[in-house]
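Entry 14. Ran structure prediction on the chain below.
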Amino acid sequence: MSTSITPDTQSLIQELMAAMQSGSLSSGTGSATGASQSSGTQNSQEEAKLAEVFQELMALLKQGNQETSTNPGSDTASPAISPAASPAAGSSASATPATGSTSSATPASSDTSSPAATAVTSGTSGVSAGDGPNTTTITNTSNHDEKIGQFLNGGSTTQPTAEIDLKPGQTGTLKYENGQGGYDAEADSSGNFQSTASRLEFYADAKGVNNDDVSYIDGRNASIKVSDGNGKTAGDSQSIASDAPSNAVTKDAAGRATVTGWYDGSTQDMKDGGAYMESKLGTGNAYIHPDDDRNATSSNPMTMAQDTSQHYTADFGDA
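Output, structure tokens:
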């Protein structure tokens, strides 16, 4: 508790100190030295004066305390709440750290436990892509890395709806729904899908009956062989590009070859490329010309039409 000292109180305290320093209290009646009666009388007067000073001092102190207790602005009447007991908003006190505080009581979330960080590290490319009950499990039988994309009818021919990355010898699966059709193709060494790529074509009707075939009509950048697991196959696993006519072969940035497809036979390169592939492969396992499905059974590429299997395996090898 703190009480302000008024000028009157200060004066009384000074008188009291002067009286004590005079030594009158120490030479009062009953002294061992046997002082005279006049000296005793003087002491009695000083003691009376001293008592009067004490009474006035106590009265002033009492008055000061009463004024303090009735003053609402006094620090002693209503002491401020200690900051340690209830820290203000935004305080960094460990008892109630503010939002975003790095206090050890409430550590910030670690990036390593975020769902996002987990999805990135657990998403392994080349295992499976796409959705649906129909599957094509593809093995890379070439001597280079492959990016295989799935393209649905009516969609983009450069941006696949699903894709898998396969190293040599690695296997991955592409899935598709009943009622969907399209094709699977391999990208070039730069990761771009070209219109001249080999195609593994598929279509599943609403009941899951499939029609798969292999097409080199637009070109051949990979050999493709597919099986339904029940004895039906299409395509081939030969590497024939090295012997193709030079005018009918193009190469990408890594030197991977593409044999020019017949397409519509409008250029000499198309005619030469189509003729070369037909001579090496025939038309009974893969499309070389758009109308090969009109051929007799022995030379008709539609060897897997109306297939009840929904699970296929395929090899993508060198062209």
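The first strand starts at residue 128 and ends at 130. Will compare against last week's run tomorrow.
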